[in-house]
Amino acid sequence: MATQDSQLDLWEVFIQSRNGSHHMHAGSVHASDRSMALQNARDIYTRRGEGSSIWVVPANSIVASNPDEADMFFDPADDKVYRHPTFYTMPEGAKQI
Amino acid sequence: MNNESNVIARNDERLAAFEERVQKGDAVEPRDWMPEGYRQHLIRQISQHAHSEVIGMQPEGNWVTRAPSMRAKQILLAKIQDEGGHGLYLYSAAETLGISRVEMIEQLQTGKAKYSNIFNYQSLTWADIGAIGWLVDGAAIVNQVSLQRTSYGPYSRAMIRICKEESFHQRQGYEIMAHMMKGTAEQKEMAQDAMNRWWWPSLMMFGPHDSDSPHSSDAFRWKIKRHSNDELRQKFIDKTVQQAEVIGLTIPDPELKWNEATGHYDHGEINWDEFYRVIKGNGPCNKQRIAHHIRAHKEGAWVREAAEAYKQKQAEKYN
């Protein structure tokens, strides 16, 4: 909600450092609309060629997992050791596998 | 057990788990449970750090129109823009702890929140811009390098980003001093005069002696702070003395001397009366700095209003 003297909306900033790499979270900016958010993100996070692409996302559009439930939430990954290549026994002498 | 003691037991359990995690070197993230004292300590420290970056733009801004060359002016503008950026990284980090930008600005403007004392001193000559970059940013870097390993994730990440940018600041300041020390007798005198005025306030930037530091025990237990004020101050002195010698500047401390046994420089006592006098608002520029911040903030209000009005209009148009 805009108050009389607003601090503007919060946006999260993701920067791709060069083509081919992931966009990574860099921080956040305040801006009232998407083009201002992009310009502010450029001015604040890429003053020295840190980026080739920027995404800005309204902070309230991000859905995050709950750290208190992290154990339970990520539990399914823990009991399936056969998902890792080191689980398997390879015959003696086999190469390049 | 009744409900209330249940809650207390639950909180004790959480506190123990939190401290164990932090001791192991695990980073704390915004949505993690944290003790209220940890949250409040960080809000105070990070917002103070952000305010320092922003207020620190003023003594440097004082010299933009009088920089001695186009090169010097461009560099100074870039440096001031960096300081503004650093303030914004830090405000964002503090906001993840649940305080709003508006509240932080209000705390600064009403004097409830502090900023680094150093920015209450005047920048009288061009050599002061050299001394600020070399000594003030140099002292800040020592502190910020240590804080890169602070336990709170967003603060640590902001520090890493800031440290990357800050070494340009220190080098440009040292270059100014080195340049002046190769100049006329008056220029050398000007550089030495700046050194004389900025040396002691730079040492004060690290805060009181460990024995007199009010917030340090929690800060160490929770790994917010990784090195003590005195340790960091010593580190700064040890590396700066040689840099001064190389360009022919004298450090204004007759008691400064190399101590073979400790492997560090011994130094004279800091004037703590001055330190506390400036903190309490009686430095040369305290009132001016805040008055200027309030004025700039008020003068920018129409921009924020216009931006909000534009947003409303766009929403009406497309919805």
Walk me through this protein's architecture:
The complex is a heterodimer of chains A (97) and B (319). Chain A is an alpha+beta fold. Chain A has helices at residues 34-45, 70-73, and strands spanning 9-16, 23-31, 53-58. A 3-stranded antiparallel sheet of chain A has the order 2-1-3, with helices on one face. Chain A has 2 helices and 3 strands. Chain A has a single domain (9-83), classed as Ubiquitin-like (UB roll) (Roll), CATH 3.10.20. The model of chain A has no long low-confidence stretch (mean pLDDT 91). With 319 residues, chain B is mostly helical. Chain B has 13 helices and 2 strands. Chain B has a two-stranded antiparallel sheet with strand order 1-2. The radius of gyration of chain B is 22 Å and the shape is globular. The mean pLDDT of chain B is 94. The interface between A and B is medium-sized, with 23 and 29 residues.
Distance between the termini of chain A: 59 Å
- The proportion of strand residues of chain A reads 15-25%
Computed structural class of chain A? alpha+beta
Mean pLDDT of chain A: 91
What's the number of structural domains of chain A?
Answer: 1
> C-alpha Rg of chain A, in Å?
21 Å
Number of helices of chain B: 13
**Distinct helical segment count of chain A:** 2
CATH topology of chain A: Ubiquitin-like (UB roll)
Summarize the largest interface: chains and residue counts.
A-B, 23 and 29 residues
As a whole number of angstroms, the C-alpha radius of gyration of chain B is 22 Å
CATH class of chain A: Alpha Beta
* Series of H and E elements of chain A: EEHEH
Query: Which runs of chain A of at least 5 residues are low in confidence (pLDDT < 50)?
Result: none
Strands of chain A, total number: 3
CATH architecture of chain A: Roll
Strand order of the largest sheet of chain A: 2-1-3
Q: How would a textbook summarize the main sheet of chain A?
A: 3 strands, antiparallel
